[in-house]
Amino acid sequence: MKKIVECVPNISEGRRKEVIEAIVDEVRKVEGVKLLDVKSDESHNRTVITFVGEPQAVKKAAFNLTAKAAELIDMEKHKGEHPRIGATDVIPFIPVSGVTMEECVHLANELGQEIAEKLEIPVYLYEEAARTPERRSLPNIRKGEYEGLKDEITKPERRPDYGPARMHPTAGATVVGARQFLIAYNINLDTNDVTIAKKIANAIREAKGGYKYVRAMGVMIEERNQAQVSINMTNYTGTPLYRVFETVKSEAARYGVNVVGSEIVGLVPVDALLDVADFYLRLENFNRKQVLELNLDEV
User: Fold this and answer.
1) Which of 50, 155, 193, 272 would you label with 34, given CA atoms 20 to 30 Å apart?
2) Cross-strand partners of 88
3) What would the pLDDT profile of 191-215 be if each residue is shown by its tens digit?
4) pTM, 2 dp
5) What is each CA distance from 164 to 49, 78, 152, in whole angstroms?
């Protein structure tokens, strides 16, 4: 079986198209890597880039992307709704086929060391690659964001896993790791009261006693003048999309607010959407073999 790894770097730029294109071009240049998706968000000022390929080729593309982002993004000037600590904020490796999670952890360590040594950017390891339980969680590493980490990076508990205990002067710091598939899912509300979105986010997020595998925050989408519940679902089989959507809809109704739409950022496994179809259509004895395209893929 051919070894395939997915990589989903998040860069701290979602507005300057020429900068985004130059960074994404570094992925296109690497042989053996296929670019799958580029999703930018102006309010978050962030772009999610998805590509797959052979492990070492994917690692090379991730490094080249990080180097270009360090060249073109100045974190001293960056503003956006999404938490971040660096120009290339986070780089996760996800096993797709013929690759174990342990191999992705090894890949994350190789890339982290290379970024630290060649670019002088401090690197933190997270999720399955984390060296301490506290650093498994990305929000824990991002605590205080870029501005806060500048002051705290020298503290023993916040020193990076690779590289100097100081921020790169323009690129900040980077988080590298290995994880299962994550679904970035946003739900939009018909209100501009961001406090409502934050209350709903607290009701569903695992850290506040909500659903397991759910991270959420309330943000303001300035260009729409609209509040949004921004969600990361780290295990869609443990907590499905429809359960989160229904809970957000129910919580919003408490405040006299409606859900007006939702969006998936980047790619999503077909099984996650089939779960939604099964739930809302109340399908009986449904089997994924009934999906035409999945049968064609097997052929």
Assistant:
1) 272
2) 11
3) 999 999 999 999 999 999 999 999 9
4) 0.81
5) 27, 22, 13
